[in-house]
Amino acid sequence: MTNMWSIIILLMEDRKKTLRDLEEAKADTLELLDNLLEKLGESLVSRMETSGGKKKGKNQESDSRELAKAEGDNPALLWEEKKSLLRDIADSEGNIKAIEADLRHLGELEEKINQKEREKNEKAKELFLLCTELGRLVLADPGFENFTASFEQEMNDISLKIDFQQKKLEELDSSEGNFFTRLTNGVKGMVTKAMLSKNEAALERLYRSAGEQFLVFMENSSGREEPEFKDGEIDTLTHDGLKQRKTHEALKEEIAGLKAERRETADAIDQKGNPARRISELEVRITRIKEEIRALHRRFGACARKNEWKDHFSSLYSESDKILDDKIASLYESLKDTETKIEATKIAIAIDNENAEIAKLKDAIEDKKRRIADAESAITGMQGQIAAAEKRIEDLTGKHGEKK
């Protein structure tokens, strides 16, 4: 490898680094240029929309025809494209709000149902206690013999069992005896207490059932002659019970209606697909459209600076727009200069590549020449050896002839 080839390689590497730096500078300039064109385009579109809305009659129609006369990228087409994109965003945002409203409504229904369920349970507990007490009073009142007749036999049977078990417990508690007797009585007492609790619970259920049926009886007796209450507490409990029963039934109906509405709402939401995924897809769509609008503003800014449109938009330029336009012009010049340098550097690198190839080939040629010279020298030596060998053969042949 010659020194020239090494120098060319080093020079080429230095130029490649310069090219990378120039490419990075070009990318930075393009990014800044895009940002400034976007700002200019957004400003002009906004001002164009404002002024366009105020124009009327033939002037507005003339401007619209002038803007739309060219094909490809032109302000009229870009303006209409932006309007379409904004409508898409509005539609997507509206769909998101609709989905969120449905989800909120579903959550509100769930909360209402839970609240009404709690109210219903509280009323059920109150009605449970009221009916138990009302049934106990009614079954003890002789004035309701016709009503209580169906409960009397069962109530008497349970009451007898309770009396018997209570007396048995008293006997077991008062009995004396040795350890085994007390142990046996203790077991009997536990069994008796369990049976007593069971019968007392059965009597409570009987009272509650009687109270509930009494309320139904009194509710069905509306408009007919009602029996006279001998106990004022029965009267109070009956009126409170009927009121609570109506409240409880109203809550059940309201809950049923809310559950039906919840089911219909949930079914309607599910038919359209998973709401979370739909919202996510719409948000992604909005983000993409906003990026399209940014790109559209850049295109509009670049389009407005073209010679065929510059006069049309000159009246819309504000002072800040003019400053932006000057910066954009300067960046275009800088970009042109950078691109010229990039092209020159690429050509120089291509030439370096060719020179490196030439140097490499020259080195190969010199190597081949050295090899040829060495081969020729070797050939000459071999030819001398051949001549010497032939001479020795000749001498040997002559000596052999003399001997004969």
Question: What does this entry look like structurally?
Answer:
The chain has a domain of 174 residues. About 4% of the residues have low confidence. It is 90% helix and 0% strand. With 404 residues, the protein is an all-alpha fold. It has 9 helices and no strands. The protein is elongated, with a radius of gyration of 54 Å.
Summed up:
This protein has helices at residues 3-54, 57-67, 75-140, 145-174, 179-220, 232-271, 275-304, 307-313, 319-403.
Gross morphology is: elongated
Q: Termini, distance in Å? A: 65 Å
Structural class: mainly alpha
Strand percent estimate? under 5%
What kind of assembly state do the chains in view correspond to? Answer: single chain
Total helical elements: 9
Could you estimate the helical fraction of the residues in percent?
over 70%
H-E order: HHHHHHHHH
Report the uncertain regions.
53-62, 223-227
| Main beta sheet strand tally, sense and closure | none
How many distinct beta strands? 0
Mean model confidence by pLDDT: 83
Radius of gyration: 54 Å
Could you outline the blueprint of secondary structure elements for this entry?
Elements lengths: L2 H52 L2 H11 L7 H66 L4 H30 L4 H42 L11 H40 L3 H30 L2 H7 L5 H85 L1
Helix pairs in contact: 1-7, 1-9, 3-5, 3-6, 3-7, 4-5, 5-6
List keywords for this structure.
mainly alpha, 404 residues, elongated, 90% helix
